[in-house]
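Predict both folds.
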Amino acid sequence: MVDLKGRVALVTGASRGIGRAIAEKLAGAGAFVVAAARGDNAAATVSAIQKAGGKAEAVSLEVTDPESIKALVSGAVERHGRIDILVNNAGITRDTLLLRMKRDDWDAVIQTNLTAAFACSQAVLKPMLKQQAGRIVNITSVVGQTGQAGQANYAASKAGLIGFTKALAQEVASRNITVN
């Protein structure tokens, strides 16, 4: 992996699974990791990173709340001077056949998996543009390309995230910001 010493990485959904593994890997490469999750759920991730000799902090984030996102990003920039990497990993499922799917389950998945990535990306773009560099990584799923019975909401959110990623990559490539 690339040497990330001096870099600050924000990882959403960093409390477990893929998000935790990403946070640990980034810290292992030398990045200071801002591990974001609901409540104090990222504390165990930060503890593991610190025990391994890495640097990290746990922050509370409700990815469906734009004000929570803005506060987290401005606070991180204030504390660390920059955000170099954003990993939009936070995601949920509310699986059921479309015929039985409640509108609240549709909305929750779209808000968490797609709209939150938009809001987090938008929030970090200003500091990244100012520093003339940045990396945004959006975690999607093969289901966004293939679909999956009982996951219309999840598949739609991940397909939307793929399209969002491609469009944003074109918008900011000339500014030394990559989006993958």
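Second protein follows, with its predicted structure tokens after the sequence.
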Amino acid sequence: MKLYDSRRAPNPRRVRWFMAEKGIEDIEIVDVDIFGGQHRQPDYLAKAGLPNVPALEIDETTCITESVAICRYLESLVPEPNLFGRDPRETAVIEMWTRRAE
């Protein structure tokens, strides 16, 4: 897997924090120069579909954009520590604090 990242953008930062909390270190990080327009180039658009970062390339045919979608995918691969909640109450409280932080 590859994570297309931009160190100066907030949404990729969420994924990096999530990976750090999970101890995920085996995903290749590819820096994307969004100020140089790299995310708008045909080769990037062919992978991601949109000029968005972050993007998680899972395999040759699947690339996920949107930071929360990427984090949910990683949560399903690495369920512990649980960062999205184990029951409806815990999930709702986590979601509330996530929205407040945004």
